[in-house]
Amino acid sequence: MGRTYFVEEAVGQYLSDLSTTLKPYVTGLLIGQCSPQRDYVIRAVRTPPKEEQNEDISPSKLASVDEEWITTHASQVSRMLPGGLLVLGVFIIATPELSKESQNALRKLIFSVEKSLTKRRLWKPAEGEVSDRAALQICSATKKVVCRTYDVQDPKSSAKPADWKYQSALSASWLALDCTVNVNIHIPLLATSPNHDLERNTKNGLNRWSKQIEDSVFLINGHVKDDDTELLEGQKKLRGNTQSSTQFSDVKVLTQLSQGSSHRSTATVQVCSGSINLKGAVKCRAYVHNNKPKVKEAIQALKRDIINTLSDRCEILFEDLIINEGPHKKNFEREYHVLPQRLFVPVAGSSVMLSDYKFGDEATGEIQERFVEMLDQSVQAEDIQVAEEINT
């Protein structure tokens, strides 16, 4: 049995609009959520045009598909997705002449996008997690839709057929989990590490911290819940007719202070030349489908958001420092850098919000431009909700 993708109707309209462009082909990403039973697609986003690219793609062969540009776009988009959402496929809308080539191009793209996203993650996939990704092919002339999946854990994977079903108001009443995590991470810089490689040291420190988050206890609305219970158990009466509103669960994260006495600890002494301290309170959020979701699905989505939001911000900060100060800055006196703040932006017709990060001196217009470029979505200034104080 192939997988079934339940797709927001607005995605169908978006893809249909794209198919009327006169180019030989258009590529893009599918955004949504995997679950053991079924998958959900709530957004499709076309690949942004390259500035130097002429409007008409001169060779009408799919060999000209810019793999690196598409994987870079996928990495940027994945930073803008809260917990529970991921890039779960790639689409190509192409003329009938290119239909044969399309499937090969899609297969290549799916594996390179997944490889690029996996490289940045600080968490490991759970056992038995869905590893199928969607390859959607649409003929611009006949509008015929063909959906197949590839198992990205298996490089030799062949295409399996999948169902593509449109549904209205698919994510209008998804459930949200919110939490604030106080961060206080101390990362020693070893005297032996070459060139004080701040980025690598930070990543190693975040790696250790992410394991702590994985082992934490999560209280949902003040209760520890069994992994296999339904998230909404005991809450069903509260829902009433709030079909288009989000039901929020407040989550507290309890991290272990120390290992139990059964764990032997071996201390190592290392010569350090300095340290990095990450301090502040970060706002984390995850969304989960409303088809009888299990507690473990929701907690896994929130854990990943906590880990992603901190590592993404550090990545953004280092990119910003390289742009503004150059890669060879050797002055390592005491310095303070403010990590970018998190903000959320609503998606029309959905209870899900997308995320982004802003530095204190960044104008609202820059954020609006980024949403248009990365997610093909225009955002009103009043809809941008900054979630945090500037203290991260």
From TrEMBL:
One of its GO terms (cellular component) is membrane. Coiled coil: none annotated. GO terms for biological process: intracellular protein localization. InterPro entries: ODR-4-like (IPR029454). The keyword Translocase does not apply. Keywords: Membrane, Transmembrane, Transmembrane helix. Its main location: membrane. It is found in: Membrane. Belongs to the ODR-4 family. May play a role in the trafficking of a subset of G-protein coupled receptors. PANTHER family: PROTEIN ODR-4 HOMOLOG. This is Protein odr-4 homolog. It comes from Corythaixoides concolor (Grey go-away-bird).
